[in-house]
Amino acid sequence: MKHLLTIGELDPGQVQAILDLSLDLQEQSPQLLKGKNIAFVFEKPSLRTKVGAEVAINHLGGNVVDIDGNLMFSSGKAVPFSFRESLYDAMKNVSQWCDAIFARVFSHSTLEKMKEYGEMPVVNALCDQHHPMQALADLLTIRQNFGPDEKISLTFVGDANNVAFSLTEVLLYFGHSVTFSGPKAHGWDDDKLQYFKLLSIDHGGTFTITEDPKEAVYNADVIYTDTFISMGQEHLYEEKMKHFDGYQVNMKLFSQAKPDAGFMHCLPAHRGVEVSDDVIDHKNSWVYQQAKNRMIVSKGVFTSLLYPELLTGEETIESIEAKHQLI
């Protein structure tokens, strides 16, 4: 594991190892990142992803270096008097100073270029297609509520977006059942549907789609939703909202799931739009547990990238501490 841009770059064993390491580090907080500098660069706003990861790195003794997005993402190439410098040059420079970079970007292709140009691990803090850090935190949340081995049924109601994609990937990796319910105009394309089908076959899970949210949530263990309007789509608000009438997760819809069903949302939530107050504030709402777990899985992700031998079992936390005199 050299980078983390997508869940699909990992295999189920690596996902399991990251979660195990994250929990070990949460209990111990050894100073494994002492002397390590992690660059943060964000094209989009962030609360949970940024602060959770920064706290995780601080707990483990590392340093966070905030870089203004305008310094990194101003242009694909340098143009005199118009832009600062190319992404190529920016990544070559930052690679001389920092040990890893955590980037939130509009386009996944930007992350691919950063990975190509840089000489350090690149971690996806969210892009238009993927949100692997959220998916890892969500899987941990589900396991904390159901146990590590129980297979559950989760229904995602809303937009076929980056969160839904990474969440579906990681759940199918471990044989869970995923149902998606959203308007056809904002659903999955054929390539993604085929990909989910192959994951289901390979790992024993199931993936189904229905446009009827009542049918989708019936007897589900977990209901998940997210904003209908992702960052960067604000100009599409009027057009998109025409399609999402009837997809709000309110108590009438939530009550169709199992009596003890959990509710999940990656946040930020638009109360009264995709979810009602009485659902997001329900006793079975796990949204703040998810937020806490963003910090916990960040520990495992950054540590495993900087010490990949921990994932393979070649080293232990204790042996790393002793070898690098981090005790």
Description of the structure:
With 327 residues, the protein is of the alpha/beta class. It has two domains: 7-130 and 294-323, Aspartate/ornithine carbamoyltransferase (Rossmann fold), CATH 3.40.50.1370; 133-289, Rossmann fold. Helices cover 44% and strands 13% of the residues. The protein is built from 15 helices and nine strands. The chain has helices spanning 12-28, 48-59, 69-72, 87-97, 108-117, 132-146, 162-173, 190-203, 213-217, 237-241, 251-254, 277-280, 287-306, 309-312, 317-323, and strands spanning 37-42, 63-67, 100-104, 122-126, 153-157, 177-181, 206-209, 222-225, 262-265. The chain has a five-stranded parallel β-sheet with strand order 7-6-5-8-9. A four-stranded parallel β-sheet has the order 2-1-3-4, with helices on both faces. The longest helix has 20 residues, at 287-306. The model has no long low-confidence stretch (mean pLDDT 94).
Strands, helices and their partners?
Blueprint: H1 12-28, E1 37-42, H2 48-59, E2 63-67, H3 69-72, H4 87-97, E3 100-104, H5 108-117, E4 122-126, H6 132-146, E5 153-157, H7 162-173, E6 177-181, H8 190-203, E7 206-209, H9 213-217, E8 222-225, H10 237-241, H11 251-254, E9 262-265, H12 277-280, H13 287-306, H14 309-312, H15 317-323
Helix pairs in contact: 1-13, 2-13, 6-7, 6-13, 7-8
